[in-house]
Amino acid sequence: MLQIEGLHVFYDEIHALKGIGIEVRRGEIVAILGNNGAGKTTTLKTISGLLAPRRGTITLDDEPLTGVPPHEVVLRGIAHVPEGRRIFKRLSVRENLMMGAYRRGDDGIEADLERVFALFPRLQERLTQVAGTLSGGEQQMLAIGRALMASPRLLLLDEPSMGLAPVLVEQIFETISDINRQGTTILLVEQNAAMALSIAHRGYVLETGTIALGGTAAALAENPEVRRAYLGE
Known about the structure:
Layout: E1 2-11, E2 14-24, E3 29-33, H1 40-47, E4 55-60, E5 63-64, H2 70-75, E6 78-81, H3 93-100, H4 109-119, H5 121-125, H6 136-148, E7 154-158, H7 166-181, E8 185-189, H8 193-199, E9 202-207, E10 210-216, H9 217-222, H10 224-230
Parallel strand pairs: 3-8, 3-9, 6-7, 7-8
Antiparallel strand pairs: 1-2, 1-4, 4-5, 9-10
């Protein structure tokens, strides 16, 4: 579905991604693990068109994405939930959700809104509330819900557990699994390696802009290097 090959990305003279290759197959959850500064967020931003690679290719269903502007990336079926949620804090919950669908002209918007409410009943309860007054967990639900309103084939999630209480982390990851079971492919960036590998099919470990390891989630969870560096063992 998504194929990244030989991707090089720079911030001025800083070489952030050094020729990485990643594959995401249809129907999968693929996790990207790594420490701060490894290049995880840079990878998602480049897929979304927010950053331009200097070299390399990105394709979605064999169609090139390299150089495609962000709004066109969304129309092609990719939605991005950024690190830090980035909701519209002065708008209501409903207005935020509808912003996710602003480029759509089909008849499925109300059905997708009901899907979001089924996944996140709290959002329906808070529908008219100003988004900036929501709790951190509710804001994360809203950020994911807003992305789903774009009706993506591929959902990019950047650190969905950041800043959340453990009970909310479990709830968010259960919902991510539900979204995947409903047919949405997911590329997940997450520092909580144990939770990410518990729901992922496959994964990659990024270290200073290069792919250090890759394989099934089960194999990565048993890898001594991963257990020592990311699972606290």
